[in-house]
Amino acid sequence: MASDLAPLTRRGIPNDPTLRALALGTIVNRAGSGALVTTFALYFTREVGFAPAQVGLALSIGALVGMLVQVPGGHLGDVRGPKEVLRAFTILSGVCTLGLLVTRQLWALIVVMALVSAADAVGNAVRNGYTARVATGGQGVRFKAYLRAVTNVAMSLGALLGGIALWINQPWAYLSVLALDAISSIVTGVLYARLPNLPPAPPRGAGEPRLAVLRDAPYVVVTLLSGIVAMHFIVMEVGIPLWISVHTHAPTSMVAVLLVINTLIVALFQVRLSLGAEDVTSSANAMVRGGLWIAAGFVIISLSDGPGRIAAVGLLIGGALVHVVGEMISSGGQWGVSMGLAPEERQGQYQGFAGLGFGLANVVAPTLITVLCIQWGRPGWYVMAGLILGAAAALRPASAWALATREKYGAATATG
């Protein structure tokens, strides 16, 4: 039970020195990312002169490259030892980001973003696998929740720095943000020197595939269902801004208000609402509960089409508050399922594959959301709510099936 676990933090700082180093690296790295995300598109369109479609193309190609390498990259961390692979690719990401300072041609932007995305994808897969191995005794989900909370804080601080650069609106300010993000990755890689070494995975047995996760059918199904549930993130990022501007009388400034509400609540309550997801079964149940909250939030948001300005604002805020509860509960469930079903010595490749579920959401969801929520209007929100809730409900039997097959695919940790 959650109440039986040793305290994760003291005064907001992890008690375990290894988790402390991971958290510090996350804060430094994500602060740089927050600054970059805020300014990237505007810098390359306003200052460099790329068309928005060209910037989008470079980002899409980078995302695709990242999806292709994250499973092999996680496997590399397993077989070589995760610490040094994590350090190398985190530093490599920063070095490649420095290339943005001199990028002036589209082909160069595509190449740089492909390299940065590949390094980030490998680093994320290896870090998630490393976390799953060191956050033991039921601490895995709680620590992932803690990391998500501090990530929100770090991204917000970085976004503030990016906002200052936007206010200055000079080339040197934008270039400073690019350099800051690069340096933050390099510094994070240096900080990871504090992490203890973990032994690499044992050699593969006779006939054992190199990437065993690709043949683990139950885990593949669980990952696909988790990816469908994860589309709710894209709904809030893509669907809400368009919905507010096209279908409601609420001011477009509500987009920023809802983002701030989400960020603050996740920072304050993510750890608390992840409690109870200590093993695969309880984590799958948490996914169902989260799906119910998310679906309810979407229904409330859909009602903002039609009422006047004040009522629309109230419904949007109410729907966002309900949604974020489901977001936090389901996130804890997803972490518990993905870590609990993975063999300990293959956590890198398994967590890399789990990340493909979110990659799938990023590829499919924007178009689907535009059709359902924007073109169809209110009925489309009901369809989206049903799709996410249905996938969350299906995760319960899928996770039970996966648990029953763990002896075949490798010993499961079965805990978060």
Summarize the topology.
Elements: E1 9-10, E2 13-14, H1 17-47, H2 52-80, H3 82-97, H4 106-134, H5 140-168, H6 171-191, H7 217-229, H8 231-247, H9 254-273, H10 280-302, H11 309-340, H12 347-375, H13 378-404, H14 406-409
Helix pairs in contact: 1-5, 1-6, 2-3, 2-4, 2-12, 3-4, 3-6, 4-12, 5-6, 5-9, 5-11, 7-11, 7-12, 7-13, 8-12, 9-11, 10-11, 10-13, 12-13
Let me know the average pLDDT.
87
The CATH homologous superfamily of the largest domain is termed: MFS general substrate transporter like domains
Q: Based on the structure given, which CATH architecture of the largest domain is correct? A: Up-down Bundle
Strand percentage lies at under 5%
The total count of helices amounts to: 14
Which radius of gyration do the C-alpha atoms yield?
21 Å
How do the SSEs run, as a string of H and E? EEHHHHHHHHHHHHHH
Structural class: mainly alpha
The first-level CATH class of the largest domain is given as Mainly Alpha
Form type:
globular
Describe this structure in words.
Strand 1 (about 10) and strand 2 form a beta hairpin. With about 425 residues, the chain is mostly helical. The protein folds into 2 domains: about 15-195, Growth Hormone, Chain: A (Up-down Bundle), CATH 1.20.1250.20; about 210-410, Up-down Bundle (Growth Hormone, Chain: A). Strands 1-2 form a two-stranded antiparallel ribbon. Helix 2 packs antiparallel against helix 3 (about 80-95). It has helices at about 15-45, 50-80, 80-95, 105-135, 140-170, 170-190, 215-230, 230-245, 255-275, 280-300, 310-340, 345-375, 380-405, 405-410, and strands spanning about 10, 15.
